[in-house]
Specification:
Elements: E1 2-7, E2 16-20, E3 25-30, E4 60-62, H1 68-71, E5 83-86, H2 87-100, E6 109-111, E7 117-119, E8 122-128, E9 137-143, E10 146-150, H3 159-163, E11 170-174, H4 186-199, E12 204-207, H5 213-226, E13 229-232, H6 234-242, E14 253-255, H7 266-274, E15 279-280, H8 282-286, E16 291-295, H9 300-308, E17 316-319, H10 329-340, E18 344-347, H11 356-366, E19 370-374, H12 379-385, E20 397-399
Parallel strand pairs: 3-4, 4-5, 5-6, 10-11, 11-19, 12-16, 12-17, 13-14, 13-16, 14-15, 17-18
Antiparallel strand pairs: 1-2, 1-20, 2-3, 7-8, 8-9, 9-10
Helix pairs in contact: 2-6, 4-5
The structure holds zinc ion.
Zinc ion binds next to loops.
Amino acid sequence: MKLKIHRGAAQIGGNIVEIATKSTKIILDCGRNLPPLDDPKAADDMEIDGLTRGESAYAAVFVTHYHADHCGLAERVNADIPIYMSEDTKNVLDVIADFINRPLPRVNKILNPGHEERIGDIKVVPLNVYHSAMGAMAFLVEADGQKLLYTGDFNRIDETFYTLIDQVDILLCEGTNIGARNGMTEQDVELDAARIMRETDGPVFVLCSTTNIERVRRIERACNKSGRTMAIDPFMKAVTDKAASQLLLVNPVGFVPNFITEEKTPRIYKYLARDFMTFAGARAVSKMTNLTFMVRQSMGEFLERLNRLSALKGSTLIYSMWRGYENTAYTKKFLDLCRSLGMNIEYLHASGHAYREILETTVSRLNPKTLIPIHTESAETFCEMYDNVVTLCDGEVFDCERL
Ligand SMILES: [Zn+2]
């Protein structure tokens, strides 16, 4: 079995990993490069012969989760190469495609955790991991008598995960936070959010990723603890409908932040029309009390409308994303607006990626013969911690037989 990281060996995001035997080649993740913070719409022109152009050389593409830095190139994969992903991943990508008016993702097979897929002489077993994307999976790959575990992105792993795996030969492990110890946990976010919600007289607004279902669940629990009702827009309603089994969402209030018409945005209108009676405009929600609005950077005008209705008095914005996004123009503009409207701003976030202690536990539990970092800018930290680390460059072939 040969391993080649086409991209992502020494950077965060843009993962494309190849596993090859003499007869079969597959791809794990086909990520788009994370765009620079000052140019969020930057294109990714990466081409791989046999994957995105030329005669197809790969038998399948397996996607770990729905973040674009792991699946963003899927739409450019040759049409005759089947794409595999979990049901949650497909569902969320479908909703996103509807709301940004892009083609629906092509999915040829739904992966079920623990159920192996055989592609030629390669066996792939998908396993659930926790990440800021629901339905995220790690892949256990077996071929030529060797086992490789590709973690994808994760922030923690269930005990049952380890019961499904005995020793692995190669651990291809994400290391986004290998340099960070003891960061805030989702539980901390929940407790602090509940406190802020209790201490705030006016409405609370939470700026977080709509598709980070674990975070939505934590905010929802904080609402319950503080006697607030969560207010969600049609996009969050559509996403959370897909995650219904993981959420409570008891009678949330629906609000429409932007004008939606059947003519201009028919695919979004379909969602709205289905739930029409449950969504209210700014005027109606401005009269309600004890609300916590789930918001995005695009909702500045909605906040201004609430302000004109004198509904922002004593309000707080909880910024619940990676702080780095503050440097993007659209986030900065939104935060500046919040400040100019007199809103108090609090920061609460837990990383979607495992902190160092959890990475250490993962490595010691899986006890790999060889540890290969990916999705990290600090591979050298792994080298300092372990003596079985092999660092690869993008495009370098690692022959697992040499172990
Ligand atoms: Zn991710």
